[in-house]
Amino acid sequence: MLDDLIKRYAKPVPRYTSYPTAPHFHADIDTATYAAWLGELPPQTPISLYVHVPFCDRLCWFCGCHTKQVLRYDPIAAYLPSVYREIAMVSEKLGGRGHVVALHLGGGSPSMLQPADIEALVAHIRENFVVSDALEFSIEMDPNDLTEDRYDALAAAGVTRVSVGVQDFNPKVQAAINRVQTFEQTREVIEAMRRRGVTSSNIDMLYGLPHQTIESVEATADQVLSLRPERIALFGYAHVPWMKTHQKMIDEAALPGVAERLKQSLAAAERILSAGYQQIGIDHFALPTDSLAVAAAGGHLHRNFQGYTTDAAPALIGLGASSIGSLPQGYVQNTVATGEYIRQVREGGLATARGVALSEEDRLRGWVIERLMCDFAVSVGELRERFGEAAAAPVVQEMRYAALYDGDGLVNFDGKVFRINDIGRPFARSVAATFDAYLANGAGRHSVAV
Q1: Phi, psi at residue 367, to the nearest 5°?
Q2: Is the peptide bond before 110 cis (omega within 30 degrees of 0)?
Q3: What pLDDT score does 440 carry?
Q4: What is the pLDDT of residues 221-257, one digit of tens each?
Q5: Distant-in-sequence contacts of 414-419, Cβ < 8 A, 24+ apart
Q6: What digits encode the pLDDT tens for the residues 324-362?
Q7: Residues near 30 by Cβ (< 8 Å), separated by ≥ 6?
Q8: For helices 360-375 and 389-404, what crossing angle results, to 10°?
Q9: Of 243, 225, 226, whose CA–CA distance to 234 is shortest?
């Protein structure tokens, strides 16, 4: 039966870290629009900051991020002054409104930053924004970048959570994706930061990689679990060589099929759950005491461009090349190419290239999709309370149809709650796509749904 469900529901669909999704962003949203949106934020709006460092010292062939390989530090040193200028310009447009409750450094490999530049970046943020005393500060770390002075600088800067990409510890898989990273290197990152008082960690695993098997994924899960990270993310490899040409270096003949991918995912999840973790949404796990598990249990889990999060801030400001921001009025994305980003910021302070303004229907459908991705359920009562009876009515009717014509038992609807059943949870993205009003127009290509 599982193989039959895979054939029907594993078609390519978005990952729904936003709605509308990025393929529907357009150039009509520009720097003037973004500046106006910043100026309209209410005075005490909680704000999250995302700073993108689009550089790595090696190019992993599986990577779907906007990044480039550099062999010298000079390009990073040339890039950072533009980030500082963008910080200052955003602060100017905010005019003192808002306060920063979360900061995430992503990439690329932000752990490549030299200690002095880590200090300078955080200093610019604190000088230009009102920053919460309880700031949640997370960073993505590549063990190959790290040195004792970098560990010290990150701890001194106030990092509260580290995220380490593992993918798979099997040497054959690592060679096939150009990502050689030993278990010992990974353990040292977690332990080095714990020694410095940073006790919250996340480890990313991937399934669906070339040469992966159920056994290799289970073995990697066991090694990850031995480190007892507070959170684990278990992502499906998104093979999108039409978007990321370096993925053409991966031998497609060595990639597992869709059915095998799902079996790898289920096997790893079983290992993680048996170790006492709780499942969070479609692909995250957390220890019961972690804030992510607490938020999920309380119905306060959220989803944004960093995946599942406790962050409920209504404004996410993206800084750096290719960064995406989310404001109450809509989404904005900076220019992707670093050279063009630097030029635009130098000339105008902002580098918005595209985005989308949200309609009320977008907000409604986005909320429905987020709840399905986070809770596997949507309360009709809350939907009507938030958006009104008239606005909710078409989507409620779609829920009725979805349940009525679901011959596989993926969902049910009792008139009060639309729910994804246990058998349907591996296909939650496909269920969420039912409520995507943009998907049928064919904009963008996506990875498979499992």
Answers
A1: -65, -45
A2: no
A3: 79
A4: 999 999 999 999 999 998 888 888 888 889 899 999 9
A5: 415/380, 416/379, 416/380, 416/381, 417/377, 417/378, 417/379, 417/380, 418/372, 418/377, 418/378, 418/380, 419/376, 419/377, 419/378
A6: 999 999 999 999 999 999 999 999 999 999 999 999 999
A7: 352
A8: 50
A9: 225
Q: Which residues contact 185 (CB under 8 A, 6 or more apart)?
A: 143, 144
Q: Look up residue 319 and give its DSSP letter.
A: E
What is each CA distance from 300 to 294, 339, 345, 374, 375, in whole angstroms? Answer: 8, 39, 36, 9, 9
CA atoms within 13 A on the CB side of 178: 15
Task: Residue 305: name the closest of 376, 370, 236, 238 by CA.
Answer: 370
- Residue entry with tokens 């009515």: 393
User: What residue has token string 């779609």?
Assistant: 398
The phi and psi torsions of 227 (rounded to 5 degrees) equal: -85, -15
Using CA atoms, how far apart are residues 31 and 354, in angstroms rounded to an integer? 9
According to DSSP, the β-strands at 315-319 and 46-53 are parallel
Strand partners, 326: 316, 331
Sheet with 417-420, side-by-side order of all strands:
377-379, 417-420, 411-413
Structure tokens at 189: 């990152």
- Is-cis flag, bond preceding 108, omega within 30? yes
Angle formed at CA 378 by CA 14 and CA 26, multiple of 5 degrees: 35
Sole residue written with tokens 């602060």? 91
Orientation of helix 2-9 relative to helix 258-274, angle to 10°: 120
